[in-house]
Q: What sequence folds into this?
């Protein structure tokens, strides 16, 4: 039984968790504020998560498939509860308090959404290229997106948007449809500058001309983009300043009219000062003088960067790369659509978190408060990630035809 | 259960793998640049341990009168702030001891703030506290002593309603306004609020390096610093000397004086009494002061000129005249008999003149402000037309003056009465009352002054405003505020001419004779408004000179009594000061308080009998 386990995936996960706990120990080493023992708690969570992962990997996949919609419904219910009774943490309602536990339902809803969409599209008659199936899949993703965006937690909400295209493309969505979805979003962003807008519209037109679709479709897509492009700046100006402020801080919470983000500067200094070899474990001056914000959660990667340097960074990035490519590879070996799509959904979630969190530490991505999978301190996220890995291991154990 | 084709899976795998590899590569380059190429640079920075982000508050612009005389400017004031992250409980205790504050309340202030940014704990420190903080600086890591400016009012400057005050940003304001954040000082009312964005300037930011003890090690990276931009200076339309003179007339009174430049709507004087010392609301505002101002029954916080709504009394009869003439309901020759009272149904309403005005025409009715005449006229006009013309004269809507929280006043309409009393719940009596400016009708003193301006200008109305221009000290440029000019449609010149003739007669021997300024032809109208809060309010509106008006004025004295007796003399003095720059000497016989005549008699006692009568020779020819 254990032979069939995907040893590479399991080994990478455990290595990452180990590195994470070690870094958390360093990050909270001189903890004078909130001096709870993060290190021990993280180990407890990791143990719980690993046991859960093992357990999930043993459950028959049929069962998970059958409960796909129920799980989805349940996660939506929990998100609604958060909106109604959520506990405010850092300005947004994200937590549900059950006894001693603080649960973050958005973690569960990521997995549940992946399962629900995969299940829906793996139906015998389902064809993602038909409008009905396409729209319902998009709706399944949009509901949790909106509920989480409402909390407001843009980082997590964006995971859902990032999820949609890889998932639907894997299910066979044609490139023209993807083009049609992506261009209005691009237009929205670029429409604030006339020249970028013009350039975009020229490229869109070129792509449309060579796409050999029906003229009516071409005109419709073109008009859609023009309308979006003209309406976006107009609607933006219609908004009152405080509404604009909400949206701006929503997109980038560190957006600060007075100047560059303090957190980013501090994080860059920490990582940059680590150099090639790092300052050595427990020797990070930035870390230990607590100049780094949220260093054991969102900015754990900066601690690694300072203490283990470029070498340490390379190792962690390599581990993540192995994990991600490995999962994509596994997904490509499985012909059952439900299982294959589920893995793709999971790997997209992990990839998005990794890129946004790590990019944030050196100012390449906005500060959105997304944790780094397996490394950041935090029970909800760790357990949810291990749960997803449990499903991956389950599938790889049972479905790969060697 | 559908299955995917092996070919498609393989193809998609390559696409995904390629995308992931590209993204990771980009990320990797980012780290390479920071950790390998830029390592030395960042290492040096990390040696200094910390960068602190300090706000640089701009100096608030001054407020000056039309001649450039400074009315409101700034004085330095010390504030103490803390960096929550670096604040140990012991430091907190010491700090609380020095600034005589409760440690708990300090903890409350820094709760929920960014732990690495300074949070202001106390403003407007007195000098001994500053010295003590300086002395114990080494015991107080994470405590910053900074200088900011606070509002300073020149001697004799009052007018709190006009200037408003500056205060700390509230939680609400921080959320609803893009550019402000908690701890900052912004305008809260009056001019300070209305022109806040111009006066405030833009705050700057300095990144300084500090060591672990919080000592300043100099600029971190000059290029990242953002300089503060000082606020612009605001020049007002009013003349401070005139303002001061007008205030002196109102010292012990409740009410308002508002004078507009009839040629452009600029405010010449703006007095609302009672008021309070604006200095009470600078720096830290004590809760006691605030509460006592708020609970004061004479309502000193109220800006009576734009916020208080009064029944306008007889001044509003002019609106009935305009409506009746323009709609050709009557001609100026229309006559009516005033026996001193008027019977409407079972009610009897009295004219202020119990003896009655007798048989009078329109001009005589204006001059004598006859109530009975206007009761009858009101019934002829009808509520709908009356309301229409009241609104044409811009009553019932705010004037759009550049001060916040202006009231609309109230012009009752048919719809209004139906809503309040029900379709059958009101009678013609309500209408008759409105025609003489009583009843539900409510106006602000500013609307009355604007009304006087409309009459003076044959319907041309300039929006009342207090700000003349902004002056940008950096670019030495003057930014004038445009004057909004409008025109009241649909009222002919003849009508205005007749109303003005009537107003001239009011001053020239009519009820407003006390408003007559020597050497200047004034036109005006008195009003005595009954109100449920006690004695009548005294009203007077006027414009002058009659032929070529430059000033329009409205005066109200709350519970002052008759408009002609109380309000008109105050308006007269204002206009006299406006035209002559002083009060003209009066050659009225004075009471002989020193008894000069008696003493003369005692000094040179002359026996009248000893004086011989002078011989007068009368020519024979007479």
A:
């Amino acid at each position: 039984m254990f032979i069939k386990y995907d040893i590479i995936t399991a080994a990478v996960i455990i290595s990452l968790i180990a590195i994470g706990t070690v870094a958390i120990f360093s990050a909270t080493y001189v903890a004078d504020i909130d001096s709870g023992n993060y290190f021990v708690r993280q180990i407890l969570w990791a143990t719980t998560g690993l046991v859960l992962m093992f357990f999930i990997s043993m459950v028959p996949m049929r069962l998970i498939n059958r409960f796909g919609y129920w799980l989805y419904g349940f996660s939506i219910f929990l998100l609604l509860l958060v909106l109604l009774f959520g506990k405010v943490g850092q300005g947004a309602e994200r937590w549900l308090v059950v006894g001693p536990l603080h649960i973050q339902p958005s973690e569960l809803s990521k997995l549940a959404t992946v399962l629900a969409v995969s299940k829906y599209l793996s139906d015998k008659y389902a064809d993602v290229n038909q409008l009905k199936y396409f729209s319902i899949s998009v709706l399944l993703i949009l509901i949790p997106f909106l509920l989480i965006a409402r909390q407001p937690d843009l980082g997590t909400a964006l995971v859902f948007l990032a999820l949609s295209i890889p998932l639907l493309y894997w299910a066979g969505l044609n490139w023209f449809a993807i083009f049609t979805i992506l261009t209005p979003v691009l237009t929205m962003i670029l429409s604030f500058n006339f020249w970028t807008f013009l350039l975009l519209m020229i490229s869109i037109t070129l792509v449309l001309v060579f796409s050999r679709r029906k003229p009516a479709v071409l005109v419709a897509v073109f008009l859609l983009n023009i309308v979006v492009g003209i309406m976006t700046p107009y609607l933006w100006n219609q908004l009152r300043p405080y509404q604009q402020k909400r949206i701006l801080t929503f997109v980038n919470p560190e957006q600060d009219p007075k100047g560059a983000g303090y957190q980013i500067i501090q994080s860059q200094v920490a990582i940059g000062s680590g150099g090639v070899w790092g300052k050595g474990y427990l020797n990070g001056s930035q870390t230990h003088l607590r100049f780094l914000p949220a260093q054991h959660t969102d900015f754990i990667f900066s601690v690694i960067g300072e203490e283990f340097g470029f070498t340490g960074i390379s190792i962690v990035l390599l581990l993540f790369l192995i994990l991600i490519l490995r999962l994509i590879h596994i997904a490509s070996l499985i012909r059952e659509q439900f299982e294959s799509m589920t893995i793709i959904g999971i790997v997209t979630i992990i990839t998005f978190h990794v890129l946004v969190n790590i990019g944030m530490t050196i100012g390449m991505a906005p500060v959105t408060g997304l944790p780094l999978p397996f490394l950041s301190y935090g029970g909800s996220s760790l357990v949810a990630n291990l749960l997803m890995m449990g499903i991956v291991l389950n599938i790889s154990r049972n479905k790969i035809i060697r | 259960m559908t299955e995917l084709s092996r070919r498609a899976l393989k193809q998609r795998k390559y696409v995904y793998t390629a995308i992931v590899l590209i993204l990771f590569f980009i990320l990797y380059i980012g780290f390479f640049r920071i950790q390998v190429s830029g390592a030395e640079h960042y290492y040096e920075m990390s040696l200094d341990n910390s960068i602190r982000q300090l706000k640089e508050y701009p100096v608030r612009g001054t407020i000056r009168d039309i001649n450039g005389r400074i009315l409101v400017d700034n004085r330095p004031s010390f504030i103490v702030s803390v960096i929550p992250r670096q604040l140990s409980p012991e430091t907190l205790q010491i700090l609380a001891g020095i600034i005589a504050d409760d440690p708990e309340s300090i903890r409350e202030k820094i709760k929920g703030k960014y732990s690495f940014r300074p949070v202001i704990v106390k403003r407007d420190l007195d000098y001994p506290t500053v010295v003590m903080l300086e002395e114990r600086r080494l015991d107080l890591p994470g405590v910053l002593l900074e200088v900011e400016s606070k509002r300073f009012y020149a001697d004799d400057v009052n007018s709190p309603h006009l200037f408003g005050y500056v205060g700390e940003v509230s939680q609400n304001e921080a959320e609803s306004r893009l550019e402000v954040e908690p701890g900052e000082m912004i305008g809260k009312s009056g001019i300070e609020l209305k022109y806040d964005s111009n006066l405030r300037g833009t705050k700057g930011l300095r990144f300084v390096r500090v060591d672990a003890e919080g000592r300043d090690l100099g600029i971190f990276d000059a290029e990242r610093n953002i300089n503060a931009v000082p606020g612009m200076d605001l020049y007002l339309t009013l003349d401070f000397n005139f303002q001061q003179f007008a205030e002196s007339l109102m010292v012990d009174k409740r009410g308002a004086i508002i004078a507009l430049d009839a040629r452009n709507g600029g405010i010449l004087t703006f007095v609302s009494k009672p008021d309070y010392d604006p200095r009470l609301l600078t720096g830290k505002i004590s809760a006691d002061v605030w509460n006592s101002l708020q609970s004061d029954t004479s309502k000193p916080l109220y800006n009576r000129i734009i916020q208080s709504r009064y029944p306008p009394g007889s001044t509003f009869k002019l609106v009935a005249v305009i409506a009746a003439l323009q709609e050709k309901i009557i001609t100026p020759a229309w006559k009516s008999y005033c026996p001193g009272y008027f019977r409407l149904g079972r009610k009897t309403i009295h004219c202020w003149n119990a003896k009655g005005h007798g048989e009078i025409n329109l001009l005589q009715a204006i001059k004598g402000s006859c109530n009975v005449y206007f009761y009858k006229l009101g019934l002829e006009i009808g509520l709908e037309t009356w309301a229409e013309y009241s609104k044409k004269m811009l009553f019932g809507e705010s004037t759009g003056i550049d001060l916040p929280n202006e009231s609309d006043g109230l012009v009752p309409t048919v719809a209004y009465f139906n809503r309040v009393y029900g379709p059958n719940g009101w009678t013609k009596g309500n209408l008759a009352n409105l025609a003489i400016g009583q009843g539900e009708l409510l106006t602000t003193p500013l609307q009355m002054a604007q009304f006087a301006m409309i009459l003076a200008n044959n319907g041309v109305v300039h929006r009342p405003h207090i700000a003349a221009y902004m002056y940008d000290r950096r670019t030495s440029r003057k930014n004038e505020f445009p004057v909004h000019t409008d025109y009241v449609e649909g009222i002919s010149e003849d009508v205005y001419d007749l109303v003005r003739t009537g107003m001239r007669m009011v001053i020239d021997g009519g009820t407003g004779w006390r408003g007559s300024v020597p050497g200047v032809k004034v036109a005006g109208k008195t009003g005595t408004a009954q109100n449920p809060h006690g004695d009548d309010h005294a009203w007077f509106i006027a414009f002058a000179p009659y032929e070529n008006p430059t000033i329009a004025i409205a005066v109200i004295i709350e519970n002052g009594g008759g408009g002609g007796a109380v309000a008109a003399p105050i308006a007269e003095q204002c206009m006299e000061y406006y035209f002559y720059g002083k009060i003209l000497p009066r050659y009225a016989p004075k009471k002989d308080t020193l008894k000069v005549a008696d003493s003369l008699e005692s000094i040179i006692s002359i026996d009248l009998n000893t004086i011989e009568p002078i011989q007068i020779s009368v020519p024979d020819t007479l």
Notes: Chain B has a mean pLDDT of 85. The CA atoms of residues 108 and 121 of chain B lie 10 Å apart. Residues 6-37 of chain B form the longest helix (32 residues). DSSP finds 21 helices and 23 strands in chain B.
